[in-house]
Design goal:
Elements: E1 2-6, H1 23-35, E2 40-46, E3 51-55, E4 58-63, H2 68-82, E5 86-90, H3 92-105, E6 109-112, H4 126-138, E7 141-144, H5 147-156, E8 162-164, E9 183-187, H6 196-206, E10 211-215, H7 223-231, E11 237-241, H8 248-253, E12 257-260, H9 269-276, E13 281-284, E14 298-301, H10 305-316, H11 319-333, H12 338-353
Parallel strand pairs: 1-2, 1-5, 2-4, 5-6, 6-7, 7-8, 9-10, 9-12, 10-11, 12-13, 13-14
Antiparallel strand pairs: 3-4
Helix pairs in contact: 1-12, 2-3, 3-4, 6-10, 9-11
Amino acid sequence: MRICVVSYHSSPLEPAGSGKSGGMNVFIAHLYRKLAPSCEVDIFVCGDKRRITLGPGIQVIHIDESNLNDFAEQIIMYSTTRHYDLIHTHYWLSGIVGLLTQEILKIPWVHSLHTFEILKGIRKDQVRIEVENEIIRRCDVVISPTHREAAVIKHMNPRTHVITIPHGVDTKRFKPSANGHATLLYVGRIDPIKGLDLLVDALRCLGREIRLNIVGGPSKGKDNLESIKTYAHGLPVHFLGLVEFEELYKYYSNASMIIVPSYYESFGLVGLEAMASARPVIGFADTGLSETVGQNAGILVKRNARNLAHAISRLFDNQSLRHNLGINGRKKALNYSWEAIARQYYTTYENIIKP
């Protein structure tokens, strides 16, 4: 099986947690490394580094074309010699490439949204909503990480073939350790949609000092970082910057709980990493965390700062509860190993390309 993967938006070679790089980078790198022993995989990204081997049987091919039409033309040229069995586009910009190549490649087209504009609770991009609607309407299969997102897609277009496959986690890298710490942890890009303002408000509501470590770099320029630093002035909030993925597990181990305060979270890969590390997760019930964390691997609340503060205070004062939620999370996370998720994708791909 030969797969054409399009990740125009960002490269799996880039470190997650800053700029355009986030959970999607981690997802693509891990999934296709696990699939590569059974498939040949070409991952097309925008950039000028040309061809880089990510692992046996998997190439990251940089196309130095920012224009999506020209980018699509290059993929069409590659396909004449590579003869792909399937194209899988990731994120809406890559989905445009799918729209541009569909009639020419004439192979099954699978799309993953990763973030779905219509579900975002903040100001929405109407052009993107219309493009995503067209992608959903015209692609052969949409793979969604949550049943909640899949239901919305199906409601929008009942003819769409939607398959739900969750994201995975490295359960060997992220593993349990003693939970006697007194530090909160946030991991992710520093971007308004990630809800750090709500987390800062929650810390003020607590009425006592609890250290918060923030791991991640700024998204869309440094203004967001400086803004949240100013907003958190006077609180025990420590900005640790970007951390290499290989070192990230140490920060989970040294935290008492992980806070995911996002206004919108399509799946919540950080929550899954926390669960694998046996750390309870605090976040909001109207996000993708509801299908992984649920109510037995953390505390999910209705969105506001006071609810967030109450959940933090409750867990901070109860080490036994933190331990029990963490153990539950670890047990659940074992079902999301990348090996298990890759097997689901391989079976799905096989079924899609069968005549």
